[in-house]
Amino acid sequence: MEQTNSAAEMPATRPQFLKVLCILSFIGTGLGFISGLWGWWSNHMLAAGTDAVAGAISGSEAGEQMAQSMTAMSSAMGMGPDYFAKQATSSLIIGLLNLVVFLGAMMMWKMKKTGFFIYTGGQVIQIIVPFVVVGGLLGGLTGIMSGIFGVAFIIMYAVNVKHLS
Questions:
Q1: Domain range list for the chain
Q2: d(C-alpha 25, C-alpha 157), whole Å
Q3: Are 121 and 77 contacting, i.e. CB atoms less than 8 angstroms apart?
Q4: Positive/negative CA dihedral, 31, 33, 36, 42
Q5: 3-class SS of residue 13
Q6: Distances in whole angstroms, Cα of residue 87 to Cα of each of 21, 80, 132, 144, 164
Q7: Closest to 157 measured CA to CA, from 127, 129, 115, 126
Q8: 144 vs 56, residue with greater confidence
Q9: Which residue from 123, 128, 125, 129 is spatially nearest to 149, judged by alpha carbons?
């Protein structure tokens, strides 16, 4: 009997570097999902709590002055209830986008090239969300900080695209 060794019959072997990247992505997206949900909840509570604290201490003249000072300080720093509401929305979107990024990493684990494009799309949107939803300096810094790892991983996965089918 004659044996054939065609490329179609041979299963693709996963390079070690791709394996490490995928495992790191699985860990990172799991933590990112949990962090996104936690960020949504805590910022949602802060948005509600800022008004509640200001209202609770405004019963006396000293409390009223303190509430006005708190409000002025929060506004000067750009961290009023609106800011926390925007942060909550941004955190939730980013947390859910981690599921998309996880799907892309899972597809690359299975050696599917489509996973790279899904992964890249999810990472790019995660970088854009803070700029659009939160805005300002804090939104920009958040986007840039998340972009550092996102772009680094996109580049490292791009090196491995040649191994995907």
A1: 16-45+81-163
A2: 11
A3: no
A4: negative
A5: coil
A6: 29, 11, 11, 15, 37
A7: 115
A8: 144
A9: 123
